[in-house]
Design a protein that fits this description.
8-stranded parallel barrel, 12 helices, 44% helix, alpha/beta, binds phosphoenolpyruvate, single chain
Length: 254
């Protein structure tokens, strides 16, 4: 049984006081909800503040980061290493987000190095893949995603694959208000699980959690979660408000 995960990607929003307020509010509102594992990924500058809030024994929310470099330390001005994140209590880290691929030139090779460096430091990658609108229109969705999966996960052990998280995020659905239909999301995620099985074996493919991301809202989460292969959501915009993120987390509460 895979435990559902709801991960909030705050992107480049929230200064430390706003982040502190939001993390406290999410902690309060989600108290008593236990089905889904909740992860919040603030910007680097708010990680320590949020980490302190989440470290209270009564809070059951995991800390995530949005990026990391693949070296442990060195003359890499402006970069943050997985070991530095580990030191702050980070458990998960997003890698391969389409905004990093698109605006910062991250290739599958870089994403792969980052995923491996994170695992080496004891941080679980939330590894993102997804096709553009043009690629979908040209019927290239499966090809694009399967290449991203193969190249991005190359050299990672089957055990590590089983522990990490994959997020299917069609680029055309991120921040646009357009959501993939639950059938489109399920089809892509099923295909990704098949790729994982072919490369790493059945045990890994049954264990790895695969999330959907792209304009997830309280109104569409239940339909997405009803699908067999969708294990949760990576949420951008709707994770910036405690109420909407909590409604997503509580997708199955009456
Ligand atoms: C994201 O940034 O990963 C994302 C899915 O954003 P949004 O929910 O705003 O589409």
């Amino acid at each position: 049984m895979r435990r559902p995960m709801m991960a909030g990607n705050w992107k480049m929003y929230k200064d430390t006081s706003q982040a502190s307020h939001l993390a406290k509010r999410i902690s309060e509102l989600t108290k008593g909800l236990s089905e889904a594992e909740v992860v919040i990924c603030p910007p680097f500058t708010a990680l320590k503040t949020v980490s302190d809030i989440l470290s209270a024994p009564s809070v059951k929310i995991s800390l995530g980061a949005q990026n990391a470099y693949f070296e442990e330390e060195g003359a890499f001005t402006g970069e943050i290493s997985p070991l530095m994140l580990k030191d702050l209590g980070v458990k998960y880290c997003i890698v391969g987000h389409s905004e990093r691929r698109q605006f910062f030139g991250e290739t599958d090779e870089i994403v792969n190095k980052k995923a491996k460096a994170l695992l080496k430091a004891g941080i679980l990658p939330i590894f993102c893949v997804g096709e553009s609108e043009e690629q979908r229109k040209a019927n290239l969705t499966d090809k694009v995603i399967s290449e991203q999966v193969k190249r991005g996960l190359e050299g990672i052990s089957p055990d590590e694959i089983g522990m990490m998280v994959i997020a299917y995020e069609p680029i055309w659905a991120i921040g646009t208000g357009l959501t993939a239909t639950s059938d489109q999301a399920e089809a892509a995620i099923k295909m990704i699980r098949g790729e994982v099985e072919a490369a790493f074996g059945k045990e890994s493919s049954e264990a790895v959690r695969i999330l959907y991301g792209g304009s997830v809202k309280p109104e569409n989460i239940a339909e997405l979660m009803a699908k067999d292969n969708i294990d949760g959501a990576l949420v951008g915009g709707a994770s910036l408000k405690a109420e909407s993120f909590t409604s997503i987390i509580a997708f199955d509460e009456d």
